[in-house]
Design brief:
- The complex is a heterodimer.
- Helix content of chain A is 0%, strand content 50%.
- Chain A is mostly beta strands.
- Chain A has a six-stranded mixed beta sheet, with no helix packed on it. Chain A has a four-stranded antiparallel beta sheet with strand order 1-3-10-9, with no helix packed on it.
- The N and C termini of chain B lie far apart (40 Å).
- By secondary structure, chain B is mainly β.
- Classes of the chains: A mainly beta, B mainly beta.
Chain lengths: 113, 121
C-alpha cells in the first residue's frame, strides 16, 4: 500500500492569512504514461461527507474558490489556502488514486486563530 | 443530478449481521465504479474497496478483505456493504463514493451522506 502522511496535524490561521498543508506519499504517484500526479485533496466539514477540492495535484474542481491551490509532484504535495475564510474551517485530506487501495492521509485540521 | 442516497443509521449487537445500501441516481449506474470509505469516530478516512456495477469486478483494501462484502444489484442501481458478524470496532460512519471515471477509479467526485453503524452490547 502507498502510505500518505500529512503535516501539520493541525493549524490555526488568522482570517485572511495563508494556510499551507503538506502531504507526502511513500512512493511516487506520478504516472509515466500521462505525466499526471494521481493526488487529490478533500475538505471535510463537521458532520458532512468529504468534498473534492483538487485533483491531478493542481486542478481545482468546478466551483471551488480560487483561494485553494495545489502543487507538487512525485511524492511531495502542498495544498494552499491563500486567504483563509471562516467557512474554510475543516479537516483536509490528501489521497492517492494511483493504485489500490486508494489511501488517504491522516488529515489536517484547520481552525481560525 | 448525480445522487448517492444511503440507508439509515443502524444499531446492532456484536455478532449480528448487517447490510447497508447506497442507491445511485442521475447517471448510468453500471458505467461508474462505486466504493466504500470508513470513518471511525473522530478519525480519518479509510478506503475499503470498490466495485464496478457493470461486471461486479471488486477490489478490496487488504485491511478489509475477508471482513466485509461489497456487492451491487444493477436492477435497482444499488451498492451494498455487508458484514456477517459485527464487532464493536466496526462502529463508524460508512460513506459510499463514486469516482468520476476517466481511468481514475479512486478519484471521488460524489459522496453519499454516510451511514452511521453503531455496534454495542
Amino acid at each position: 500500500d502507498i502510505v500518505m502522511t500529512q503535516s501539520p496535524d493541525s493549524l490555526a490561521v488568522s482570517l485572511g492569512e495563508r494556510a499551507t498543508i503538506n502531504c507526502k506519499s511513500s512512493q511516487s504517484v506520478l504516472h509515466s504514461s500521462n505525466i499526471k500526479n494521481y493526488l487529490a485533496w478533500y475538505q471535510q466539514k463537521a458532520g458532512q461527507p468529504p468534498k473534492l477540492l483538487i485533483y491531478w495535484a493542481s486542478t481545482r474542481e468546478s466551483g471551488v474558490p480560487d483561494r485553494f491551490s495545489g502543487s507538487g509532484s512525485g511524492t511531495d504535495f502542498t495544498l494552499t489556502i491563500s486567504s483563509l475564510q471562516a467557512e474554510d474551517v475543516a479537516v483536509y485530506y490528501c489521497q492517492q488514486f494511483f493504485s489500490t487501495p486508494f489511501t488517504f492521509g491522516p488529515g489536517t485540521k484547520v481552525d481560525i486563530k | 443530478e448525480v445522487q448517492l442516497v444511503q440507508s439509515g443509521a443502524e444499531v446492532k449487537k456484536p455478532g449480528e449481521s448487517l447490510k447497508i445500501s447506497c442507491k445511485g441516481s442521475g447517471y448510468s449506474f453500471t458505467s461508474y465504479w462505486i466504493g466504500w470509505v470508513r470513518q471511525m469516530p473522530g478519525k480519518g478516512l479509510e478506503w475499503m474497496g470498490i466495485i464496478y456495477p457493470g461486471d461486479s469486478d471488486t477490489r478490496y483494501s487488504p485491511s478489509f478483505q475477508g471482513q466485509v462484502t461489497i456487492s451491487v444489484d444493477k436492477s435497482v442501481s444499488t451498492a451494498y456493504l455487508q458484514w456477517s458478524s459485527l464487532k464493536a470496532s466496526d462502529t463508524a460512519i460508512y460513506y459510499c463514493a463514486r469516482p468520476g471515471g476517466g481511468g481514475a477509479q479512486g478519484l471521488v467526485d460524489y459522496w453519499g451522506q454516510g451511514t452511521l453503524v453503531t455496534v454495542s452490547s
